[in-house]
Task: structure prediction
Amino acid sequence: MSAPLDVSGEEMRAEPEAVAKAGGAPIQGRSLGQIAWMRLKRDKVAITGGLVVVLLILVAIFAPLLVGWFGHPPNEFHQEMIDTLTMQPKGGSGIGKDFLFGVEPVNGRDLFSRVVYGARISLLVAFFATLLSVVIGTVMGIVAGYFGGWVDTLISRAMDIFLAFPLLVFALSLVGVLGQFETQLAVKGDTLRILLLIFVIGFFNWPYIGRIIRGQTLSLREREFVDAARSLGARGPYILFREVLPNLIAPILIYATLLIPTNVLFEAALSFLGVGIQPPTATWGGMLSAAVKYYTVPHFMFFPGMAIFITVLAFNLFGDGLRDALDPKSSR
Amino acid sequence: MNEEPLLSVQGLEKHFPVTKGLLQRQVGAVRAVDGISFDVRKGETLGLVGESGCGKTTTGRLITRLIEPTGGKIVFAGHDVTHMSQGRLRPLRRDVQMIFQDPYSSLNPRHTVGAIVGAPFRIQGIKTEQGTKKAVQEILELVGLNPEHYNRYPHEFSGGQRQRIGIARTLALKPKLIIADEPVSALDVSIQAQVVNLLEDLQGELDLTYVVIAHDLSVVRHISDRVAVMYLGKIVEIADRKGLYESPMHPYTNALLSAVPIPDPKRRAGRERIRLQGDVPSPLNPPPACRFHTRCWKAQEVCRTVEPPLETLAPGHQVACHFPENVAGSLEGVLGGTASTGAVPAEAAPAPEGGALA
Ligand SMILES: Nc1ncnc2c1ncn2[C@@H]1O[C@H](COP(=O)(O)OP(=O)(O)OP(=O)(O)O)[C@@H](O)[C@H]1O
Ligand code: SF4
Ligand SMILES: [Mg+2]
Result:
């Protein structure tokens, strides 16, 4: 936990009176969001993390273009790069200007393009799983916190149950079962597995954000500005959407940003275990899993490993910076 | 006195249930407000004073019907609002507003000053001739804020300015009654007087009636016409200002008064300072009979067994105590110059009557 910043930083203590007298310019207040943005801009580490995140997203979106320029189709075999005796890449890794990250052993597929395509699956699954968790968690958290009583008890128990759920076992068996019926389902292959991953990862992780939002709602509900609105005759929806929700945007943003890297790791782990996307589609976890057998060619493990590492680190650094900037702890 | 009071509170009670376990079984109740009665006449200011936790805020929240009373009756401007539905209360809410205790918690940090002070118009669906913005700016000016700060956010203001924003919000709909819950206790001493003066000026200008809550008697001294003293959910003494400050009858009022600094050294000399022993007992389990007996230096056996009723002992002066002081009251105060706060519960006349009522 980084030390919470006090909202009464200098830039905010600018006395309105003083400003009014000195400048005479039209007075425009700075919202907490604008102040957070100013703080974030000064946080070099967070901004670097943010830029890397943007870069990764661009890579994922423009993967076909990148591969077209700098590589070879991800599932194209390049036997000419393989030493037929050892089945290892010629020259150890095959890294060169043709194959930026070298080639896989045995079949000689282009590692660069496989890592680039792997970003698509990783980010896609992580984003949508996070979205699913955040939507369910926020709704459940607000409902539990705002209405309290037996509704709260019910939802809180549900959260406990979800958190105690043996997720990995469930994921393994779900994939096994669905695999049997695959021919009868409307969606098949990669699409089916991507949806499955999003569901498994997203649906079981909502209690984390749910608890945070519940706690925040609980404390917001007790704030006197809610009483003030009620004493003016405001009804439930007004209080929920106009008074409470604007104060929840910061925590939602922060925890969403911090949940994404967790989900990237989770997806990689599932793919590593063979539960995720199936070969030959390129995923980082799947590549790592394959690379384990070829410890003599370390570059095979290095590039997908680095991709996961950089992605997780960038999101975490950005998320931490965002938290410091928005600082929900001391925003009164 | 012949006029009907603007607000009448009769035997008002609020018991917060204390629940336990998964099934929310009730195991007790916090008797935050336990049968209080008072009237507030149009145009007057009633001070409501008591230590922390004695139920002052709860009383305010009951009157504004933020919470539902467990017993008693609240009549505002002839309407019985005790259990009125929120829907039917809505139009009446324009007339009763509350200033909150904590100026940091009472303003939504995500809303601009304009949105906060304009909220009453929006919530009540009121259109003003010149538009909400103009109306809001006029109110800001009225409470001594720069109307150009319309687009600023609460965190850009000091505590005193924030409390002015809170006051502006209560004024938006031109209410008849304002409950001010410790309007200055969160503020610097140096600006407390400014805010109290503002409240006083506004009262004259806008024809307001106030219930001003405070935890010590000094804050409400010059703003109140009458003062009610609360202890553990009960009113122990209620009188007009002169009667209460010059000849307090309840030992608790005396104790509170002795904590108030007196500017006049002559009077200060003749007064001994009473230090209250111990903490306020929990309202979860209040002492029987007279609730003050655990801390009262005049307590007798009867105080532990018979609850003293709130009785009128002088015109407009009600006290709940078996052994009140200053009963021949104002005379002694004027002649002797000093209040007899002797620890001897000697000439305590009305004790037998109190006993008879049990
Ligand atoms: N919602 C609630 N649920 C349970 N108990 C409550 C609730 N609100 C208040 N209480 C209890 O009721 C008692 C009176 O509280 P109240 O806030 O009215 O006191 P107060 O006189 O305003 O004190 P302060 O000077 O600290 O503001 C306290 O013991 C408090 O703990
Ligand atoms: S009734 Fe007894 S205990 Fe209570 S205040 Fe009076 S003298 Fe003290
Ligand atoms: Mg209070």
About this structure: Chain A touches chain B at residues 7-8, 12, 14-17, 20, 26-32, 149-150, 153, 223-225, 227-235, 238, 243, 246-247, 331-332 (CB under 8 Å). Confidence is low (pLDDT under 50) at residues 1-25 of chain A. The two ends of chain A are 19 Å apart (CA to CA).
